[in-house]
Amino acid sequence: MDGELYGMLTRLVALSPSDDPGLNALVRRTCAAALSLPALPSDGPAVDHPVVADFAEQFATDVSVLSDAQRGALSKALGARTFGVVALTFVADYLPRVQAGLAALGLPPVPAPADWDRDTEPVDLLLNGFAPMVGARRALDPVLTEVVRLRGAVQHNCRLCRSLREGAALDAGGSEPMYVDIERYEESTLLDERQKAALRYVDALIWTPSRIGTDVAAGVRAHFTDEEALELTLDVMRNATNKIAVALAADAPRVPEGTERYLLGADGQPVYG
């Protein structure tokens, strides 16, 4: 398997900023409880912070209905620390999902860290380290990758993500009629069985990660190699970083209406315009 990707996931588990270890422990405990999954390990005990706990629970359960009152209370309580704590909440929310997905597919688990990382900036590691590292992988074809991305965009109701269309996927056969069908993929005649198997897995990771059905896992195993299945799992996590923008109401589209074409560069970073 991809040692570089697994190493990055271990680094995310190891995050424990020196100024927020108690809050990091709190969001790890809260998100896991909301998902009925084992919590990531923590560097010390959780603090008692009802505002952060309330935000983290809603973030994990359904970020699309997180209220202005909840995000306002978090910002008021944390000030300049807000963005970093939301990034830690994402790690607490999504790495247990990834572990559950890997287990369901019979893939190796994420290794536990040897020590805590108290110095690395969580936002930087997540958005400038993890996200482009996954985005640079090309085991999956661009249309499948885009179909998976757009399903997550709708499930998290990310306005920016819903407004984007990846150019390589369009050039490879992606189309608006196909993308419309993603919302009712089981009935679609435009999406093939491989794409549908991927979308069932996407939905399971997003909504029922503690209960990934054997049929869902079998569908992935039937259509994807180990390398592809790992990339698929981590694509769901990479796409879900949109939860951070949605949670902070920072997901406005770049165009006033319609869609915008972009490219996912060889370095895994989006290229606009």
Q: Could you name the key traits of this structure?
A:
mainly alpha, 2 domains, about 270 residues, 3-stranded mixed β-sheet, AhpD-like, Carboxymuconolactone decarboxylase family protein, 14 helices
Low-pLDDT windows of residues: none
Largest sheet: 3 strands, mixed
What is the CA-CA span between the terminal residues? Answer: 35 Å
| Rg | 18 Å
CATH architecture of the largest domain: Up-down Bundle
Please tell me what the overall shape is.
globular
Organism: Mycolicibacterium arenosum
Protein name: Carboxymuconolactone decarboxylase family protein
Plain-language structure description:
This is Carboxymuconolactone decarboxylase family protein. The chain has 273 residues and is mainly alpha-helical. The protein folds into two domains: 131 residues, no CATH class; 134 residues, AhpD-like, CATH 1.20.1290. Helices cover 60% and strands 4% of the residues. It contains 14 helices and three strands. The protein has a three-stranded mixed beta sheet. A hairpin with a 5-residue loop joins strand 2 and strand 3. The two termini are 35 Å apart.
